[in-house]
Every structure is written in C-alpha cells, then in structure tokens.
Fold:
Amino acid sequence: MQYGLLSSAIYDLTEEIKSIKKLGFDYVEIGIEEPKATPQILIRQKAQILGLLKEYRMQALGHTSYWVGFGSSHNKVREGWIAEGKEMIHVAASLNIKLLNFHFHGGEGQSMQTKFGRDIFVSNFTDSMLELSRFAKKSKVTLMLENVPLQRNGPTIKEYSQVIENTQGLMVHLDIAHAYTEGGMKMIREYVERFSDKIAHLHIHDNHGEHDEHLPLGMGTIDFNGVASMLKGMDYNRTITLEVFTSKSDAASSMRYLKGILG
Ligand SMILES: [Zn+2]
Structure:
C-alpha cells in the first residue's frame, strides 16, 4: 500500500512536494487547478517538479478540480471543459503521471430534479468521458472517475455505474467518505463490492454522514475498522490519499492511524 497527500493549488507545487515528503508520505497527488497549479503553470515548472520527484523517489498522481462541468447541457461550456480536460491530460503525461482523476460532479440548477434532466446529464457526462478517455489513451494516461454524490439531488451510484460501464478504460476512484455521505457504511460496501475489479485509487477522510467535511480519521462517524476489513477483503494494495483538509500534520496522523488498522 502507498499513502499520499493532495497538493494544494494555493501554494507553489514544488514547496508542496517538499512538505509532503517531509511528512513521510509515499507519493504526491498533484492538484492540477487554479490558481497556482494550472496546466500552463505546471508545464513551465516541469523540470523542477520532475527533478524533485526523482530526488525523493516519489510517484505522482493527478487530481483535477471537482466542479468541472463535463455533464453540462450548455454545449459550448461542455466542449470548453473537454478542451481543458485535454490540457490537464497533456500536463499529466508531461509529469509522468499515469493515473489522473476527474469528478462525477454536476447537475446545476434544476437539471437533476427530473428523470429527463438526469438522463441528459449522464449522457453528456458519458460522452465527455469517452472523448477524454480516447485522448488519454494516446498519451498513456489512465483516467479514473471520483464519486461525488454531495450536492442536493447529486449523482447516485446507479448513475455513476452507467458512466463507468459505458466508458471503456475509465477506472474507479473511490472516495470512501463521499460514499458515506450517500448512504453510510452500507453504501461504502456497495461501491466496494460493485467495483472491486475497477478500483484504481482511494481517497479517505472522515465526516458525520451529512456533509463533505474532510476531517481527520476518528473525528467523524465512519467506522474505519469496517472500512479496513472491506479493503482487506478485496486485497486492495494500491494508493490511498488521506484527503484531510484541517492540516497537513492531521493528514499525517490519519495516515499513521490507518496504517495501524490496515496492518
Ligand atoms: Zn476525494
């Protein structure tokens, strides 16, 4: 198992990599987003970033903004985001990132209030993922989709499954805490069982089942012993990012706690 931390785009990425290494994480999940880590800025910093990763023997994964509108019915907006997505894939490939995430987020306004609107959202989102997956394949980058059922009337596991099943090569990036807000421990189990052969990466943090709080492990109500036994049950041995937002040292403490229960 490898444990990592997400870099913040508020700070310079090279400084983020140094502090993530110092805290004992195995890899960095690079946040490719505004303001300080847009594709344009990261391309300019490419030599320094690759130099640091080599010196620290750290791998990098890619993480993009959660609010991107890949399911929008405003076609010019959606096409614009697909073009931006290709820039993100390009910068990922330039930084030797093999695994890049996008988020299953969307459904603004009244679009998710009816089956009609939800079907259009899922169809648009799937079309965007199909185009980006084909593009990523040429760049030798694998795309994964993170579950984000957070907003009111947000996308469900059923809709998430439709996108995954209809997009060849698109892997599952399971955010355990997001699944918990969708339906508690039962929903975490459902995601794990339904996608066990497609889970490429995990995000772990804590909450009280209502909001996406990104708390240190133990500060919310998720049963992490239960989560650990599910992960052991599927022999999960890939990457886990501690997506704790209270502080980097809290994320490091959560990593030690998780290592303790995962053995
Ligand atoms: Zn996440």
